[in-house]
């Protein structure tokens, strides 16, 4: 039987315990550099440290925080470490944390306007703010007839765009032709086109055109959806939006621009040209949680024709009917996503933009790019290494250069493992053009020049050790 004094949301207790957690996190950030960046635990480690069954009686917060320190922290790969250079960063900031506190603390479920008018209206305002920062065409903004929504990830955004594109096409060709669409019905209807060194791993518009024409001519298929990328995960490549937009227009396909990583950089005028041609797209997405100092999770998605989006994703059960929705003068964001429930992400983005301002957000991006240029220069100065793909943003893809190419993958893989195994830094790899490359992605909020220099010294140290262990691996002079 539960305690008669049980009060799970007592304001006084809430204040006291929240301060304890905030202090814990503050200390974590102060000491995060001391932890091995990549967790050193073995699979299943936590099963040996935690009880097999849930506690029957409540436990004090002090005990739980000690367990977090003793059992959870060792099992974390520290994404906020200044020595985290893997994947693409998951930015955090004080403003982003405060916004997340508001999001979690207010805990509204704003699936339609009436469920929380401020959440809906702030989202439409903030999405237009960010769109203007990116200098998107007015046709993508609410103020220009388009509109946007905040999702959790670009994967979610693209899935919604695919559904909208599919349903819009079926209206034109008939629902019985669904298997003729080049999207998501059988997996064989996807087309992943190869890229190459000749165009810096960007999609070639001629290849896209030929592939679509072949499917129409030989398979009787209906091209539907083309995804262009600004800042690919493997190499940071940028697809030619304008040329791809013309192909999409000729074949009447939906063009989506995935700018999840590099879209944030385009608030800086010197990077904005990477979005040239976006006016030909039907939708575009970018992730503030990658490079915009906005704590996980947050993805901005803009659509030129929201009506198509809403017609595909809308649901209207009787229990959600209300006069505001039926008036058609409000936005119901449940009709802009797959699920019904949604978080108040807008207040987090609003907090980040207001506390930092556009000027500081640009400074943050430029600072990361400058540090990546410094790392790139380190690579260029050591003849044992080479930059494999041209750097565009804050990602450098490089490798050790053995004389015998058959040793290249093994050597570089061992180098990545040695760096990560040291606990002093964390890097990841990719394969581009059949070549195994090491990725150094700079963007963690706490990273400074000294950390970049230490990373390079660590890489050189581990490379030296590799050739002491296996001296037969000759290097290019």
Topology:
Blueprint: H1 11-31, H2 61-72, H3 94-106, H4 117-133, E1 147-151, H5 154-173, H6 205-219, E2 225-229, H7 241-251, E3 254-258, E4 283-286, H8 288-291, E5 299-303, H9 306-313, H10 323-326, H11 345-381, E6 385-389, E7 395-400, H12 408-421, E8 428-432, E9 435-441, H13 449-469
Parallel strand pairs: 2-3, 3-4
Antiparallel strand pairs: 1-5, 4-5, 6-7, 7-9, 8-9
Helix pairs in contact: 3-11, 4-11, 5-9, 6-7, 11-13, 12-13
Question: How would you describe the overall organization of this protein?
Answer:
- The protein has 477 residues and is an alpha+beta fold.
- The protein is built from 13 helices and 9 strands.
- The strands form 2 sheets. A 5-stranded mixed sheet has the order 1-5-4-3-2, with helices on both faces. It has a 4-stranded antiparallel sheet with strand order 6-7-9-8, with helices on one face.
- Strand 2, helix 7 and strand 3 (254-258) form a beta-alpha-beta unit.
- Helix 3 (94-106) packs antiparallel against helix 11 (345-381) and helix 12 crosses helix 13.
- The chain is globular.
- The protein starts with 10 loop residues before the first helix and ends in an 8-residue tail after the last helix.
- The model has no long low-confidence stretch (mean pLDDT 93).
């Amino acid at each position: 039987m539960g305690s008669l004094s049980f009060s799970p949301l007592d304001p006084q207790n809430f204040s006291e315990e929240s301060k304890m957690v905030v202090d814990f996190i503050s200390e974590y950030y102060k000491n995060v550099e001391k932890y091995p960046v990549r967790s050193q635990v073995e699979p299943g480690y936590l099963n040996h440290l935690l009880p097999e069954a849930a506690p029957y009686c409540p436990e004090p917060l002090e005990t739980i925080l000690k367990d977090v320190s003793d059992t959870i922290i060792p099992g974390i790969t520290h994404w906020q470490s200044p020595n985290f250079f893997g994947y693409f960063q998951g930015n955090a900031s004080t403003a982003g944390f405060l916004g997340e506190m508001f999001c979690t603390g207010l805990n509204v479920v704003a699936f339609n306007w009436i469920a929380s008018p401020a959440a809906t209206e702030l989202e439409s305002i903030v999405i237009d703010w960010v769109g203007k920062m990116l200098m998107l065409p007015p046709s993508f903004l609410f103020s220009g007839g388009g509109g946007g929504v905040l999702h959790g990830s670009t994967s979610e955004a693209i899935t919604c765009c695919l559904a909208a594109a599919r349903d819009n096409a079926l209206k034109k060709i008939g629902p019985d032709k669904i298997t003729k669409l080049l999207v998501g019905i059988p997996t064989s209807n996807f087309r992943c086109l190869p890229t190459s060194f000749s165009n810096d791993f960007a999609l070639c518009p001629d290849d896209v055109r030929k592939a679509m024409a072949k499917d129409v001519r030989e398979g009787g298929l209906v091209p539907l959806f083309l995804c262009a990328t600004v800042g690919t995960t493997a190499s940071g490549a940028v697809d030619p939006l304008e040329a791809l937009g013309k192909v999409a227009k000729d074949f009447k396909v939906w063009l989506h621009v995935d700018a999840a990583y590099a879209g944030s950089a385009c608030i800086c005028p010197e990077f904005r040209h990477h979005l040239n041609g976006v006016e030909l797209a039907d939708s575009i997405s970018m992730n503030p949680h990658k490079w915009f100092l906005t704590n996980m999770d947050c993805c901005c998605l803009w659509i030129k024709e929201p009506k198509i989006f809403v017609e595909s994703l809308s649901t209207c059960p009787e229990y959600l009917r209300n006069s505001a929705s039926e008036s058609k003068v409000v936005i119901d964001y449940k009709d802009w996503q797959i699920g019904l429930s949604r978080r108040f992400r807008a207040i987090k983005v609003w907090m980040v933009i207001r506390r930092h301002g556009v000027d500081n957000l640009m400074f943050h991006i430029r600072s990361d790019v400058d540090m990546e240029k410094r790392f790139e220069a380190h690579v260029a100065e050591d003849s044992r290494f080479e930059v494999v793909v041209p750097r565009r943003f804050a990602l450098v893809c490089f490798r050790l250069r053995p004389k015998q190419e058959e040793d290249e993958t093994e050597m570089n893989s061992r180098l990545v493992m040695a760096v990560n195994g040291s606990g002093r830094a964390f890097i990841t790899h990719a394969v581009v053009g059949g070549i195994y490359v090491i990725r150094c992605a700079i963007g963690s909020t706490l990273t400074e020049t000294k950390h970049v220099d230490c990373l390079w010294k660590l890489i050189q140290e581990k490379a030296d050790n590799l050739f002491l262990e296996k001296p037969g691996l000759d290097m290019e002079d």
